[in-house]
Specification:
seven-stranded antiparallel sheet, five-stranded antiparallel sheet, 10 helices, globular
């Protein structure tokens, strides 16, 4: 298995194989390749055959100065017995590589779904074709992180060379699942996935300690570490995987056991999980890199900014805050509650010389409430997962048009998407 980020060559079909097939999957990702960029892994196992897997980011022209990054595409090309055989095996090969993005770049990749597949055998005049209908939806504001393909290759090659490659890859997959549960309220499930990653790495840490101490049996290693045999696995998890952080280790195990065995109230679990999720994720990711023996230079880069902080890439969540002023019924006639209708329109998107995207958009806010009520002191916050991005827009001088009980407020926001995905503070401009 080899990795590269150049134009992929055609796969070679072994003698006697029925044909060469291509299957393309897609999904959303916080990691974005450049418009002409790609990352290829050659000879990746897909069942009993090997295939080439190439990742690209699809961009869409929406009439802005820059194209909008939409989907992460994974093209899998190789030999298969039939189209159905390719449909069965090829998408799993693509999915198996996506945890590399999550660990190397600390950027979440959502599950890839098969989009289409077809027979690409050149000498044939009739070729089977399959397509899965996937709704496109509208582009949404989201934070992204540029892909640095050499980092992906460094981690992939290191895991591939390891005698513990299966367990390292399993730990990476659990880290990926943890990032998928990074949203507010899902901290318990995120910590559960992190703990499973720790368990997957335990035998890998044990092998590393065998080599370091010159021992070959668990009892000998326990003696060398100054612990009992019963304490060996917990010691390895705490010291080598969770940064020798006793508080983190105990809290993670409490959350995992309390959730699995059901003896702890859910609100107590969430409180503990919220406290320990971030440090546990940092420790697990570092342990995956260290136990994979990633070379020093790419390892250090992966652990430095911006990659030291997870980027989830969920659509940016916007929270509106305001004050309802006035006397009388809060809700408009025919409504049970006061509410706000809210629409976002992207005005412009341009790409800067350093690969960042500058976005400007309008927020159209229409409060619907009682005849004597007004919405004042309106502000908007942008959040990514459960993290405040640092962006807060205050509509200080927005004009209000009164139409019966309806007020219409239009403001403009500007987002400067830095490589680490953290936009600056801003104020809204009035229209």
């Amino acid at each position: 298995m080899s990795t590269q980020n150049t134009e992929p060559e055609s796969s070679t079909r072994p003698s006697g194989d029925p044909g060469i097939f291509i299957a393309v999957s897609r999904g959303r990702a916080a990691a974005v390749l450049s418009e002409d960029g790609e990352w290829t892994v050659r000879g990746f196992p897909a069942g009993d055959r090997k295939v080439d897997v190439t990742f690209r980011t699809a961009y869409e022209d929406k009439g802005f100065e820059a194209k909008v990054p939409r989907w992460l595409f994974a093209e899998v090309k190789g030999p298969a017995e039939s189209l159905e055989d390719a449909i069965r095996r090829f998408p799993n090969a693509a999915r198996a590589l996506t945890p590399i993005f999550d660990v190397a770049l600390n950027a979440a990749v959502e599950d890839l779904e098969l989009h289409f597949a077809f027979d690409a055998t050149l000498e044939r005049t009739e070729r089977a074709f399959f397509q899965n209908f996937l709704p496109d939806g509208q582009p949404t504001l989201r934070q992204t992180r540029p892909v640095k393909a050499p980092l992906l290759s460094a981690l992939t090659d290191s895991i591939g060379r390891s005698p513990d490659s299966v367990r390292l890859h399993r730990a990476a997959a659990h880290y990926q699942q943890a990032l998928r549960f990074w949203g507010l309220g899902d901290e318990t499930r995120a910590v559960g996935q992190l703990w499973m990653g720790v368990e997957a790495l335990t035998p890998v840490a044990k092998r590393a300690q065998f080599e370091k101490t010159g021992t070959s049996k668990s009892a000998e290693l326990a003696e060398a570490l100054g612990v009992t045999l019963k304490e060996l696995d917990s010691t390895l998890r705490r010291r080598l995987i969770l940064g020798d952080d006793q508080h983190c280790y105990k809290t993670v195990t409490d959350v995992s056991n309390g959730f699995e065995h059901g003896y702890m109230p859910l609100d107590a679990l969430r409180t503990l999980a919220r406290e320990v999720r971030d440090p546990a994720a940092t420790y697990l990711r570092r342990a995956i890199l260290d136990l994979s023996n990633v070379p020093t230079a790419p390892r250090n880069e992966m652990l430095a900014s911006p990659y030291d902080s997870p980027l989830i890439g969920f659509p940016l969540t916007k929270y509106l805050r305001g004050t309802i002023s006035g006397s009388g019924d809060l809700a408009a006639p025919g409504q049970r509650y006061p509410l706000v209708e809210w629409r976002t329109d992207i005005r412009s998107l341009r790409k800067t010389d350093d690969g960042r995207h500058d976005v400007q958009w309008n927020e159209k806010i229409t409060p619907k409430m009682g005849p004597q009520m007004q919405m004042t002191k309106i502000s908007i916050e942008l959040w990514s997962a459960d993290k405040h991005t640092g962006t807060r827009a205050t509509m200080k001088r927005a004009d209000v048009e009164r139409e019966g009980a309806v007020h219409e407020v239009t403001g403009a926001l500007q987002l400067d998407g830095r490589p680490d995905g953290a936009p600056p503070d801003l104020d809204a401009e009035d229209q």
